[in-house]
Structures are given as C-alpha cells and as structure tokens.
Amino acid sequence: AALALGDCGLSEEGVRLLLDGLCSNTTVKSLDLKGNNLRSVGAEALGKLLRQNKSVRSLTLEWNSLGMWEEGFSFFCQGLRANNFLQHLDLRNNQINHQGAGELAMALTQNTSLQELDLRWNNIGLLGGRALLNCLHSNKTLKRLELAGNNVPGDVLKAVEQALAHNQDREVILSEARNQVNILSKEVLSLKDEKNKQFMDFVDTVDKEKEERARSEKMSAARVSQLQEALDEQYSIMNSLKTKLQMTEAALALSEQKVHNLGELLNAVKQEQNCVAECHFRELQQQKQEGADREGRLLHDLSAASEKNLLLRNQVDELERKCKVQQDQLFQVKQELTNTTAELKLRAVEAEERLEMEKRRFKQSVEDMESLRIKEVGRVTQHMEASERAMHNRIQSLEAIRISLEEELSQIKAAALTERGQAEEELIKVRSQARLEEQRRLEHLEEKLRQMTESRDEAQNCCLKQKEMVAEAQAKAKQLSLYADGLRRRLDELQQDLNNKEEEKVTEINKVKVELQEQIGHLEAERTAQDGLREKIAALERQLKALSSNHREALLDKEGEISLLLEKLRMKEAEISRMREEEAQRASFLQNAIMAYVQGSPLGAHCSRK
C-alpha cells in the first residue's frame, strides 16, 4: 500500500503523531511527504520510523529543507544506518550541505538495502561528493545516485558513475552467481533427494531385515520356550518320580522298622507269656501242695486252718493282680497296635503334605523360569531398542551433515555476494568440496552398508547358532526322555519290589496275627484253667467256711461246757473251802477239847506242876 501526503502542510505535531503511528505499521510500502516543510521534530520522527518500521520500501522527502536542521538530520541518518529494508529514498531540494552529505555517507557505509538515492538540487559540494564517493567503496547495494545541481566537480561525478557502474556490474555478477547457486542448490537438492531415496531404501531394507530377524528370533524364542516347557515337564516328571521313589523307600524303611518292632514285641510277649505260664505252673503246684498241706492241717488244728485260709486269700489276690497285669499287658499291646496304625496314617498325611510342598516348590521354580524368560525377552527388546537408537543417532548424524551442507550453501551464497572472480573460485571450491563430501558420504554410506551387511551376517550366524542350540536342546530333551524312561523302568522295578515286600510284610503280619491269635487262645485256655482253679479255690473256701463254722459251733459247745465245768469247779472249790473251814473249825474244836481234856486229867496237873 502507498501513502501519499505530499504538499499537505502538515504541522510538526501532526507529522510526529503520523510517523509514530507508522512505526508499528506493516502494510504501508511507499510513503510520500514532499513539500511539508519538515523540521527538526519531523527529522527525528523520520529517524525513529526508519529504525522501527520494516515494511516501508520507498520514502519521498522532496522540498522539506531537512539539511537545515543538523541535529534532526543526524538523527535521520542514524535511523537510515540502522534500517535494512528501505530501497528508494528521495531527498531532492532539502538544502543538504557537505556536513549532512558526510553523515549520509557514514549511514550508507552500513546500510545494505538502499538501491536508489536522489540528492539533486542540494548544496553538497566537493567535500560531500568525495564523502559519498568514499562510501561507495564499502556500499555494494546502491545502484543509482543522483547528484545533479550540487556543485560537485565532474571528476567526482565520473568517479561516482564508475563506482555505481561497478556496483551494477557486481549486481549482475551476483545475480548470475545467485542463478548459478540456485542451479547448484537445485542439483544439490536433487542429489540429496536421490541420496535420501537411496537412504530410505536402505533403511527400508534394514527394517525388513530387522523384521525378518525379529520374526526369526520370535520363532526361535517360541521354539526355545516350547523346548523349555518340554524340559520343564520332563524335569517335573523326573522330580515326581524321584519323590515317589523316595516315598516308597521311606515307606519300605518304615515297614521294615515296624516289622522289626513287631517282631521284638512278639518276642517280648512270648517271653512274658512263657514267664507267666511258668509262674502260673509253679504257683499251681504250690497251691496244690499248700492245699494238701492245708487239708492235713485243717484236720489237725483249727488255728493252722485259719492261717492257711488267710494265706490262700493272699495268694488268690496275687493271682487276681497277675491276671489284671496280663489284661493290662494285652490292652497295652492293642494300644500299641492302634498307635502304630495311627503313626502310619500320620506319616501318610505328612508324605502328602511333603508332596504338596514339592508341588508348590515346582510351581515356584516354574514361575522363576518364567521370570527369567521374561527378563531374557526384555534384554532382547532392550538390545533391539539400542540398535534402533543407534540407527536414530545415525539418522541424526546424517541430518547434522545435511544441516552442515545447508550452512555451507549459505556460506557459499554469502561468498557469492563478493566479487565475481572470488565467486567463481568459491563455486569451484564448493563444487570440489561438494564432490569430495559426496564421495566421502558415499564411501561412508557404503561403509555403513557393509557394516549392516556384516551385522546381518552376524544375525544370520546368531540364528544358526540358536538353531544349533535348539538342536542341542532337542538332543538333550531326547536324552532326558531316555533317562526318564530308565527312571520309570527303575521305578516300576522298585514298585514291584515294594509290592513284593508289601506282600511279604502282609504275610508276616498275618503270621504274627495267627501267632498272636494262638497265643491269645493259649491265654484264654490258661484263663479258663485259672477260672477252674478259682472255682476249686472257691469250693475249698466254701468247705473251709463250712468246716470253720462247724468248728466254731463245736468250739462254742466246748466253751459252754467248759464254762459249766468251770462254774461247777468254782462251786466245788467253794464247797472245798467251806469244808476246809469246817474241818479247821472242827480241828480247833477238837484241839480245844483235847486241851481241855488234858488239863482236866491228873497227867495234866502233874505236867503243869513241873
């Protein structure tokens, strides 16, 4: 868009506000402010506009007398120095002197966008013309410079024209160089596209090889997992067979131990029964002898009979205690049999619990193998991810190479803005460098292709090794199956031996049961004999009781008779004592009578005189 405000008589405040508003504008491309008598404020606003605006390409300031305001024009030149977007500037009839021309020349030395500058009908003079001529040596973009009506000498004008012509030639050379650079860039882009296509084809082939290798690895992993499962099954079968073998051996050992214990118990029971039978026999003989002695003694003495009766009672109590002891022993034997059966049941339960524990351990081992397999799969996936990251890094390196090539192209473009000869030399160098880099890149890609082929060969070798490992695993599985068959046969043999031993044990147990039954029959017979003896003893006791009752009655009769005799004896003794007293009285009476008779006779008197 173009904004034409020429010959509008704008005030300084209006110009300042207008230019401040255009600082942030992006649509106005051409601005015409000729004939508005701009002063210092307008020049400063124009400098600010040139520093901040990036869209204005053409600026017309004819008939404004900007050169009269040195500070404002210097501010305007500073804005022009900082601007890199303005291409056409019209400063005709602005009363610019040689100082303003010098500041304008200093601004043009750093400006890289201005192509046309119109300074006609000013007061530049010789010094201003030389300053502008000197700035053209460093400014390569200015193509047209109008200096008519400025009191500039002809030689300076010719030098300015030559410099402008040189700039125009340089611009033509640069345009040709740009065209050549564009052509070369297109060729480079086409080469890049071809290389990218080749690289993408190569990446596709690599991806296909990766997919094939992944499929082969998956198939090998599946095969290995199947073989591992088969091996695990074989191991589980072997472990179960081993556990069964151990259980059978333990059962055999327990049965042998039980048979040995039962034999010892039977021997002990036999010895005890023999001892008890001998004791019973001796006791029976003693009882018979004592019974005979008692019968003889009962006939002779009642006191001996009572003592023998007490002895018989004590012996009967001892016999009853012995019978109770034998019954307790039989009960203990039965209790031991029940305990042994309970122990067998408990051991069977413990064996089942151990079997459950072994099953849980086997499940745990299976879970551990599964976790190891998952870890192996994770490791393989990590390896694949690492290879993918390496490929990604390689792609990034290729991208970096591409970016470096683009930077080199930008450097080539920057160098092409210089002289034509340097541009041609730089182009030759760039071509040679590009060719060398392309050759190097091709060699590098060929090297990478060779490395990828080597990696593919290595992957194929790994697959072959895995196949060999699978074959070895299959052979090991066959060997393990043969070994498992041998173990099964061994287990069958052991099972048969166990069955034979079980049959022998059953026969021995039956024999022991028969012997126990026989011994129990003998004990029952002895018990019946003891019952008969007890009955005989009871009959003898009844006879003894009858005899004792008879003897007691006889004793009572005798005692009654003895008491009567004693009473009679006491009566007789009383009579005898009375008779003795009477005899004593009679004797005393006789003595007294005799003494009286003697005293009354003459013999008695003679005796008394003597």
TrEMBL record:
The keyword Cytoplasm applies. Keywords: Coiled coil, Cytoplasm, Cytoskeleton. InterPro entries: Centro_Cilium_Assembly, Leu-rich_rpt, LRR_dom_sf. Residues 302-582 form a coiled coil. It holds the Pfam family LRR_6. It comes from the Eukaryota. The keyword Glycosyltransferase does not apply. It is found in: Cytoplasm, Cytoskeleton, Microtubule organizing center, Centrosome. One of its GO terms (cellular component) is centrosome. SUPFAM superfamilies: RNI-like. Its main location: cytoplasm. SMART domains: LRR_RI. PANTHER family: LEUCINE-RICH REPEAT-CONTAINING PROTEIN 45, NY-REN-58 ANTIGEN. This is LRC45 protein.
